[in-house]
Structures are given as C-alpha cells and as structure tokens.
Amino acid sequence: MKILVPVKRVVDANVKVRVKADGSGVELANVKMAINPFDEIAMEEAVRLKEAGKATEVIAVSCGVTACQDVLRTSLGIGADRGALVETDVELQPLAVARLLAAIAQQEMPQLIILGKQAIDDDCNQTGQMLAALLDWPQATFASAIRLEDDKAIVTRDVDGGSETVQLTLPAVITADLRLNEPRFVSLPNLMKAKKKPLQTIAAATLDVDIAPRWRTLKISEPSVRQAGVIVRDAGELLQRLRQETNVL
Ligand code: AMP
Known about the structure:
The protein has a single domain (2-246), classed as HUPs (Rossmann fold). Helices cover 27% and strands 27% of the residues. It has helices at residues 37-51, 69-78, 94-108, 127-135, 188-194, 235-245, and strands spanning 2-6, 9-11, 33-35, 57-64, 82-87, 112-116, 139-149, 152-159, 162-169, 172-176, 199-203. The strands form two sheets. The protein has a nine-stranded mixed beta sheet, with helices on both faces. It has a two-stranded antiparallel sheet with strand order 2-3. The site of adenosine monophosphate has 23 residues, from helix 1, strand 4, helix 3, strand 6 and helix 4.
C-alpha cells in the first residue's frame, strides 16, 4: 500500500515572524525555513505504518519553489522512500495545492494520503478537506491515532470535549493532529543517506490544473501590543477595581 504525504515548507516554528515594513507580507529573506510541524507528524506516522508492515511505500510531495526540496530531503531522512517536488513560482493557496495533490494522487493511486491538519504559516486548515472533496474520498481530520485493518482505516479524532473514533474505507484522506505521535530526531547520517533516495521534479504546468490565486492579501500587520497586567491582593480588591475602572459591576 502506498501512502502519500504532502509536506509544506514554512518559516521555522522557532523563528519570531516579522512583518515587512510595507505590510505586504512577512519577512522571508534570510529566515530559517523548515517542514511544517504537522507534516512532520504526518510523515512520522506514514513511516511508522511502513515499519509496522502496513504500507509498502511512502512518498513525500511538496508544491512550490525549488527550495521546497529541503523539506523533501527532511522527509526522506525521516524514512520516506522517494520525494516529488511539484514546482511552481505561483503563490499557492489551499485550493491550488489540493488540485495539484489530486492530480498527483490520480497518477500515483495511493491508498492513503496523510496531510498535516494545518500549515502554521497560513493557518488555513483547508487543504486536506478540499483534497478529499476533489477526489471524492472519505476523510478524517485532526487524527490522534490511526490503525489500518484490511481496506479500512480506524481513526481517532480530536474533537471539542474529547475524541471520536471513525472508520473509513480506503482510499482515504487523513489529517494529522499534534497528539498523533512525536516525530523522531533525524540524524545527520540518515540525512546523508537520504541524498541517495529518488527526488523527482514535476513542473506544475504539466498537471494541467488551475492554480491561479483566488484571493489577494490586502495587508498584514503585527498583533496589537497588549497592556501589562495588574496583580491584585485578593478578590475584594479585584471587585473594587472592577467597580472603579469599568462599568461591569
Ligand atoms: P493548510 O490548509 O494550508 O493549513 O495546509 C494543510 C496541509 O496541507 C499542510 O499541513 C500540508 O500537509 C498540506 N499542504 C499545504 N500546502 C502545501 C504545499 N505547498 N505543498 C505540500 N503540501 C501542502
């Protein structure tokens, strides 16, 4: 069974993101980039399924500029068998990514696609859902556990107030939540070995899908600065200050 894992290149989660002076976007020049953390979890899960004998091949796919090869190399270091870069300079929005991934899925015919639940740069949380809709496959989002049995995936999902377990008939789309697993540390020797694994480049234009942006960013701004808090001695002082300083009581 083949598992496809889409991985996005985003600003490293440890970097403090800065807004460009003209408010047109965030500063990306000389900023450390990394694999989207939820995609690392998705990749770890796919590799664990392969190690458990439940899958035969794990394929990492990234859509975007040439530099996205670095997140494919990280994926190969985790244990993916091969990588594919769907290359384009067009600014990709979730519908465009979902269309590109659907085209790749139709070529590769995987039984399972595991995405991250969301990309930490746009926080859209849309691509997996759109991809399932385009392929007309069942989907389970926010997975915290995945079990494969014959032609079924049994998925526990994080939902408000607890968890829910659903059964999907394969092929299916699953999106990974934080609690699914803790990704392994990718050692330098494994990264070096990964250099020998196949990494294919596919020009997005050859997939014949409409990837034109559907929305335009008007402005990006820093969050407003929060005023410092005040520590009160006890509930009595709190009530007194609320009476004095607000109209609440
Ligand atoms: P989003 O809907 O943008 O929050 O992204 C959800 C998931 O879709 C990510 O965690 C990735 O698994 C996948 N994804 C989004 N953008 C890309 C991309 N450019 N290349 C590959 N996978 C992507």
